[in-house]
Design goal:
11 strands, disordered N terminus
């Protein structure tokens, strides 16, 4: 596979080291520095404990096989939108699987609030702490919008202090759909409408981390901007950590930080 690098930009006067991993932060801002576990690119602000962190993470599909990821040290903090970009084969999907707890690193650790994810209850983590938005939506077409959202709440095993139908209606409003969509079946919705329902479903049990796999891949630019506005509100207004895998330069430009992966060589 390919050698991945990560580029950080925050100060126009800084220069990049060819071997350093860096992070691209905001449209015209930049300091280039290696990102190591526990480091912060916001030195002027109080340190915020990362929600998720890669601590010297490497991954290969087979023991002793070619690495897809090699010695990655990334930090994902609450209240920010992160974009993960890079060509096919650069390890974006693998990184998403590691962050979602579907797989564990070959080397190193994925830390959730400082705790090794491999040593925790990963099923509980996936059903309580993170919400995943799939590229193909994975909604049940024969069910209504509200039924899809409530089904996710049921599967989480969480208890709720209000009726689930009431929470579902609030989520439908949050993703900018009209109230009457609650009783609409998924098979009658457009791609953009289904994406909004997929976001509402991922938020149904109030996770602190939102992972999205190409959430705007098949959407027009206007709908893409609207979806990104929802993600930014989740991060900036609600303090969630939002991580988006994307090929879209427009999505990357609207994110707070961009981790740019490249293929491993050799």
């Amino acid at each position: 596979m390919t050698n991945e690098t990560i580029e950080t930009t925050t100060d126009a006067t800084a220069t990049a080291s060819a071997a350093a991993e860096s992070i691209v932060t905001g449209p015209a801002v930049a300091v280039t520095e290696p990102i190591t576990a526990g480091s912060s690119d916001e030195s002027a602000a109080p340190a915020v404990v990362p929600a998720l962190q890669l601590d010297h993470v490497s991954y290969a599909y087979t023991k002793g096989g070619k690495k897809v990821l090699d010695d990655k040290n990334y930090a994902f903090r609450p209240g920010r939108v992160y974009a993960i970009t890079g060509p096919s084969g650069a390890g974006k999907t693998t990184l998403l699987s590691l962050l979602s707890g579907l797989t564990v690193p070959t080397e190193g650790k994925v830390l959730y609030h400082g705790n090794d994810l491999a040593k925790t209850d990963r099923y509980r983590y996936r059903s309580h702490d993170i919400g995943v938005i799939f590229q193909s939506f994975n909604l049940l077409p024969a069910l209504t919008v509200a039924e899809n959202i409530i089904l996710s709440m049921d599967a989480s095993g969480k208890t709720f202090d209000r009726p689930k139908t009431e929470i579902a209606k609030e989520l439908i409003d949050k993703v900018r759909l009209r109230p009457e969509y609650a009783s609409e079946r998924i098979l009658h919705l457009s791609g953009g409408e289904q994406q909004r329902v997929a976001i509402a479903r991922a938020l149904s049990y109030d996770p602190t981390i939102v992972l999205a796999d190409e959430p705007t891949g098949n959407l027009d630019l206007a709908t893409q901007d609207d979806i990104m506005a929802i993600f930014k509100s989740l991060a900036h207004d609600e303090g969630k950590c939002v991580i988006i895998v994307t090929h879209s330069p427009e999505v990357a430009a609207q994110s707070d930080d961009v981790y740019q992966l490249a293929r491993l060589r050799g």
